[in-house]
Amino acid sequence: MKWHVLRPLWVAIGLVASIFVARVFLVPDDFGVHGDTFTYGFHRLSNVQEWKDFPVKYKGRESCEECHEENLAALNGSTHQTVECENCHGPSIDHPDPNEFLPLDKDRALCLRCHAFLDYPNTDRGALVSIVDRTHKRRYECVKCHNPHDPKEYYE
Amino acid sequence: MTCSRRDFLKEAVGGTLVSALPLSAFVFITTDEAKAAIADSKVRWAFLVDTTKCVGCGLCVKACKTENEIPYDAAVTRTWVERYVVTKDGQTHIDSPMGGRDGYTTDLIRDEEIEPEDIDKAFFVPKLCNQCDNPACVQVCPVGATYKTNDGIVLVDRDWCIGCGYCIMACPYGVRFFHPEHKVADKCNFCYHRISKGMEPACVECCSFGARRLANLRDPDDPVTKIITTERVAVLKDEYGTKPHVFYIGLDANVR
């Protein structure tokens, strides 16, 4: 058959076929519709598990309590009892092994996050004990005078 | 036109092979297989933000960036806290420097000092991914790299994302961003690695004021679900039809 249209047609069909063949090798086996619809559920299934395996860094108060019972007891009843340990002591991901000491943040900036005075009527910010940074013992760390585990207690 | 028997057979066999090849590359699934894939989940994650409790300390943003390995000094974040100050002249002053990562410690808003007596109302609004039921960001993904899980969380497949940025443009809430290290789209996923282990998201755990809480909407005994279903809550940009699942208490009309 000598029809000049046929030759480029074979090439085109060959190209399309090669794309489908390549797709078989390149697309992972678990790629498909997993979920209620194609629109929202078209994905690689094993990625869900990959996200679940992402490492946890903040282990939480219960994890601290396993060894530091007395520190949590000291915190009980104080105005800081709702403050998470790791907010100041840092995430305990590799503590105690291999990292024996956590980087304790004693910076004024950490305390000022809640205790810098802002006169905002629609928040609880005004209800918190607060200071004006410019005028209150500027060059000292807050923990020099205030016990962070029981802020009502002052050191002289 | 004449055709010999030999030629006819040749053409017929060749044509069948060529047409069969692409068909074999398609995957057909039965109705039962599709139903099995849906796997009716007992969990639908949602979030409750009590804006009246937020004091703008920004510890949630700090914890989120650390927990989820988002470059700390890059101007991108999965969750952020906005400050709204509405003055008596009717103007709304909004800022969120570095997403509120370092907290709000001065009354300067964009280098502008606002006198306390000029303030009508002032408050903080934490924001994060709404894990929409109809996520606009997922619809636009050209490669299937982002999707909704059975428990309602929208995830990004970092191996599959090509970084085209369509989803970043599509999200009406501006939640998505380009991850500067992985070079892919990134977003809040309610700390999926934590909630699937029974832990709270990092931002919830680090909030000392109970402004952020996680809920499972399919569990009627969940105390946070009870608040969402029985009290007055609002969502952001309801008019977009995305069915967001972050609910707010005390949401103001100025919040966009």
Task: Please give the structural blueprint.
The complex is a heterodimer of chains A (156) and B (256).
Chain A: H1 6-26, E1 31-33, H2 38-41, E2 42-44, H3 46-52, H4 61-65, H5 69-75, H6 85-89, H7 108-115
Antiparallel strand pairs in A: 1-2
Chain B: H1 5-25, H2 31-38, E1 45-50, H3 59-67, E2 80-87, E3 92-95, E4 108-109, E5 112-113, E6 119-127, H4 136-139, E7 146-148, E8 154-156, H5 166-170, E9 177-178, E10 185-186, H6 192-195, H7 202-206, E11 212-216, H8 223-230, E12 246-249
Question: What does it look like?
Answer:
- The complex is a heterodimer of chains A (156) and B (256).
- By secondary structure, chain A is mainly alpha-helical.
- Chain A has 2 domains: 6-52, no CATH class; 61-144, no CATH class.
- Helices cover 37% and strands 4% of the residues of chain A.
- A two-stranded antiparallel ribbon of chain A has the order 1-2.
- The longest helix of chain A is centred in the first third of the chain and has 21 residues, at 6-26.
- Chain A is elongated and about 105 Å long.
- Chain A starts with 5 loop residues before the first helix and ends in a 41-residue tail after the last helix.
- In chain A, 18% of the residues are buried.
- Chain B is of the alpha+beta class.
- Chain B has 2 domains: 45-129 and 189-249, Alpha-Beta Plaits, CATH 3.30.70; 136-186, Alpha-Beta Plaits (2-Layer Sandwich), CATH 3.30.70.20.
- In chain B, 25% of the residues lie in helices and 20% in strands.
- Chain B contains 8 helices and 12 strands.
- Chain B has helices at residues 5-25, 31-38, 59-67, 136-139, 166-170, 192-195, 202-206, 223-230, and strands at residues 45-50, 80-87, 92-95, 108-109, 112-113, 119-127, 146-148, 154-156, 177-178, 185-186, 212-216, 246-249.
- In chain B, the strands form 5 sheets. Chain B has a 3-stranded mixed sheet, with helices on one face. A 3-stranded antiparallel sheet of chain B has the order 3-2-6, with no helix packed on it. A two-stranded antiparallel sheet of chain B has the order 4-5.
- The longest helix of chain B is centred in the first third of the chain and has 21 residues, at 5-25.
- The radius of gyration of chain B is 25 Å and the shape is elongated.
- The interface between A and B is large, with 52 and 65 residues.
